[in-house]
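Project outcomes to date are best conveyed with an example. Our students and postdoctoral researchers have been running inverse folding experiments weekly, and each run begins with a structure described purely in tokens. The record below, which covers 441 residues, was selected by the lab manager from last quarter's runs and is presented without edits.
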């Protein structure tokens, strides 16, 4: 029996427009006047949904509308197939924010994300006429070169909610089908290219009817494809992903600020969920990289977001507080967390922070303790201070170089099939020449 397909729907909009009530009404047919604001992001699963005669498990992501959670919403939009942008029909200013949410999804979300506009609280005093909504819809189409269906709903009466979600499901499923079709076409093209290359390598016993001209034509086409591939790789920078993890108060944000802005703040607000920064055109071992550094929250309640942020991570920087005698005992738990949720070739760096304060550890004892930890990868230790800059640049430089090394190793397997050793080509050409009575150099 075929497994259900996955579909991801994200619900966005300003704070208090009724996103959570909309989802609760759709999922449970219940309505409450007292709904607490979403902290960061929440998710529910709608299982076994029949969409166009295919079965799906639909993940519905409920996001916070406050500005301080914007980075979390940005991450949540990754791989989404459709989005409901909500505004409050009873608020005369609420509709103004929709255009910025469209722009947000167009710039930060997947390229083919489908967008549905949802007006909520229709049971209250509606501030918009049908003509106003029609004119605004025309303006959106002109600005974004796209049409967005509008649904007017009420979580209290249930009006319009089923239609809004069913259209989101339908458009999302179509978007996923189109994306899968494109990926399959790319895979087929790649497979055809690999087959042509492998055919060249397997031509050790060529057929008699093969001529040197046919061989040279095959050789020319193969190396033309290789040239296109290599040029495209030279044009585009490779990407590296680093993630900072550790307990609350370990100094992760200060470490990153010290590295990026060369500044130190005595009081940093704890990271809520996830934040990240991008650095472009960083030269590592003669090659340019675009680097993203993800700063994660240490609180247990945000652990699911940390787990989500670890996808495709090259290096994890695991921080602990040198001035806190209880901080180091969490290291093994974080290593286990990383090894469960990351790919096997992730690099892990252990970083002691706040070395400018009285410390409870010395480097020799820490090195000995690291050797007792259960880790699949070799652990490197750095002692740092965000206040004095001690060890900061050495830590990140090592992290960049380690990530680049891991990245190159992961690419070697794929690239190796593309290289045809010159000596093999010469031998192969000689054999063809002899079988067809051509002179061989």
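After processing, the design step wrote out the following sequence:
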């Amino acid at each position: 029996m075929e497994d259900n397909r996955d579909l991801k729907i994200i619900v966005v909009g300003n704070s208090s427009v009724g996103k959570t009530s909309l989802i609760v009404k759709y999922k449970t047919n219940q309505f409450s006047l007292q709904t607490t604001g979403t902290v960061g992001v929440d998710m529910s699963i709608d299982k076994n949904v029949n969409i166009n005669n295919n079965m799906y498990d639909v993940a519905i992501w409920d996001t916070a509308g406050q500005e301080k959670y914007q980075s979390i919403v940005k991450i949540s939009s990754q791989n989404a197939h459709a989005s409901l942008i909500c505004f409050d029909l009873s608020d005369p200013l609420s509709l103004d924010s929709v255009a910025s949410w469209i722009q947000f999804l167009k710039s930060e979300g997947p390229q083919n994300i489908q967008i549905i506009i949802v007006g909520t609280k229709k049971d209250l005093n509606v501030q918009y006429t049908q003509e106003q909504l029609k004119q605004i819809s025309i303006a959106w189409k002109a600005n974004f070169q796209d049409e967005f269906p509008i649904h007017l709903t009420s979580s209290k009466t249930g009006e319009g909610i089923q239609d809004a979600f069913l259209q989101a499901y339908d458009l999302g499923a179509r978007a996923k089908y189109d994306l899968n079709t494109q990926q399959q076409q790319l895979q087929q093209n790649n497979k055809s290219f690999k087959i042509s290359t492998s055919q060249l390598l397997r031509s050790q016993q060529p057929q008699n009817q093969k001529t040197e001209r046919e061989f040279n034509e095959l050789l020319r086409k193969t190396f033309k494809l290789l040239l296109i591939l290599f040029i495209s790789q030279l044009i585009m920078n490779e990407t590296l992903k680093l993630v900072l993890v550790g307990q609350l108060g370990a100094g992760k944000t200060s470490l990153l600020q010290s590295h990026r802005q060369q500044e130190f703040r005595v009081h940093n607000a704890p990271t809520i969920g996830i934040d990240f920064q991008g650095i472009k055109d960083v030269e590592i071992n003669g090659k340019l990289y675009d680097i993203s550094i993800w700063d994660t929250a240490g609180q247990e309640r945000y652990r699911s977001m940390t787990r989500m942020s670890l996808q495709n991570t090259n290096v994890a920087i695991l921080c602990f507080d040198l001035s806190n005698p209880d901080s180091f005992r969490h290291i093994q738990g974080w290593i286990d967390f990383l090894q469960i949720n990351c790919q096997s070739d992730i690099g892990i760096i252990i970083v002691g922070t706040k070395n400018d304060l009285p410390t409870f550890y010395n480097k020799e004892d820490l090195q000995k303790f690291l050797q007792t930890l259960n880790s699949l990868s070799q652990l490197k230790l750095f002692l740092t201070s965000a206040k004095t800059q001690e060890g900061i640049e050495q830590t990140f430089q090592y992290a960049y170089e380690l990530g680049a090394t891991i990245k190159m190793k992961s690419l070697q397997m794929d690239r190796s099939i593309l290289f045809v050793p010159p000596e093999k080509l010469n031998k192969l050409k000689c054999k063809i020449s002899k079988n067809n009575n051509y002179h061989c150099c």
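The two ends are 59 Å apart (CA to CA). The mean pLDDT is 80. The training component of this project remains on track.
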